[in-house]
Backbone:
């Protein structure tokens, strides 16, 4: 009698254990997500850019300084200031959105940097980096990853999102 119950329990466990194993693997890998992308419009020519106008985020205390420093290390002239009506006195305007999370300490979860045309405010380059807690990078590393990907991207369609959409104009 006891052996029949034990056999039934073992059969039940062997049916359930693959499901538990898969569930456990899925739960344990959710902290390992990372993504780094960049795209340029077909007409984008980053080799013509010598200067940037960087617009600090509304609630940003000093993260814009990391972007400014990285661009300056690459040899660009960078001016910072508030958003204003175009045209800007630069070859490109830099917008960014940074998302932060808390996991024992604050860390940058996602960073999107958009280069816009100084005359029409139309995006022509977008880079994005997302790193969850287990693959987290410092803010400096996130900025470097995004900018390196933008400057290394080949021209093609820009993937637009709410932060980088510009009004459509007919040509």
Residues:
């Amino acid at each position: 009698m006891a052996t029949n119950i034990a056999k039934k329990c073992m059969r039940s466990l062997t049916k359930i254990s693959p499901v538990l194993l898969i569930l456990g693997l899925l739960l344990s890998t959710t902290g390992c997500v990372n993504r780094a992308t960049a795209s340029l419009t077909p007409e984008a020519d980053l080799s013509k850019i010598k200067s940037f106008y960087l617009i600090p985020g509304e609630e940003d205390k000093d993260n814009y300084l990391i972007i400014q420093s990285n661009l300056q290390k690459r040899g660009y002239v960078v001016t910072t200031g508030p958003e204003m009506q175009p045209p800007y006195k630069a070859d490109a305007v830099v917008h960014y959105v940074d998302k932060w999370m808390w996991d024992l300490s604050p860390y940058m979860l996602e960073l999107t940097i958009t280069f816009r045309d100084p005359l029409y405010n139309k995006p022509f380059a977008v880079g994005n980096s997302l790193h969850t807690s287990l693959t987290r990078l410092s803010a400096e590393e996130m900025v470097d990853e995004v900018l390196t990907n933008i400057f290394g991207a080949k021209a093609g369609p820009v993937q637009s999102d709410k932060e980088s959409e510009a009004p459509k104009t007919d040509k």
Remarks:
- The longest strand covers residues 92-102.
- Residues 23-30, 160-171 have pLDDT under 50 and may be disordered.
